[in-house]
Amino acid sequence: MVSQYKLSVCPHDTAKNLLGWFTLNTYLQRKLGTGIHFEPQDNFLIERKAVLEEEHHVVVYANPYSALCFARDKGFVPVARPVNVVDETIVVARAGAEVPAAPRIASATDKLIIHNLGLKVLERAGIDSGAAEFKFVGNHLNAAKAVLQGEADLGFVFNETWAGMNASTRAELQVIGESHDGHAFHCFMVAPEWADKREAIQQILCGMHLDPAGLRVLEDLKFKAFEPIGDEIIPVLIKLAGG
């Protein structure tokens, strides 16, 4: 019988290693002694909508913008984040290209913190975002592709996406600017429905690097460890999101 309780994970992360997240869910279930159903999504907005509208999503691994939505609208509480992993934005143009006064800008969506950070990079670079034409292309890699294909003058690219691109592709692009805020990151959150399990989940996640089985899961997902966090991150996310 499928458990009524659900885990949801940001699609950017499941796209990189879907099996690794199933393994983490199995680890969490065993440690808690409770069934949790994991049904991955491949779209940021659909995944967010499901958590906000469907019942029994009790644990989420959320991108910063979704984390803010889940805390504000459903009362989710942050419990853990990956150590030394932050979300930043790199603004790119075609190598050697001039940036026009009214640039066409490709961004995955304006419903991710990467977009907000990109706007701040533009401001620091003296580029008027008010004169820009934005094209929302669904994911971060598509933003880079739009620039390469001449469909956009600038692209907002997630730092992790940029790092994962091959050297020859990066050589066709130039970095106009990048954020160094260090305040945005993905995190695990627990729903009010599981308030009684919040501390146990935090301890399990933050102790994984000390457990051989947990360490294998972390290494597969390319994380060093998780560290504890709490509600103190929410005001920071509100500020980053322009709220």
UniProtKB/TrEMBL annotation:
It holds the Pfam family Phosphonate-bd. Gene3D superfamilies: Periplasmic binding protein-like II (3.40.190.10). This is Phosphate ABC transporter substrate-binding protein. It comes from Zoogloea ramigera. The lineage of its organism: Bacteria, Pseudomonadati, Pseudomonadota, Betaproteobacteria, Rhodocyclales.
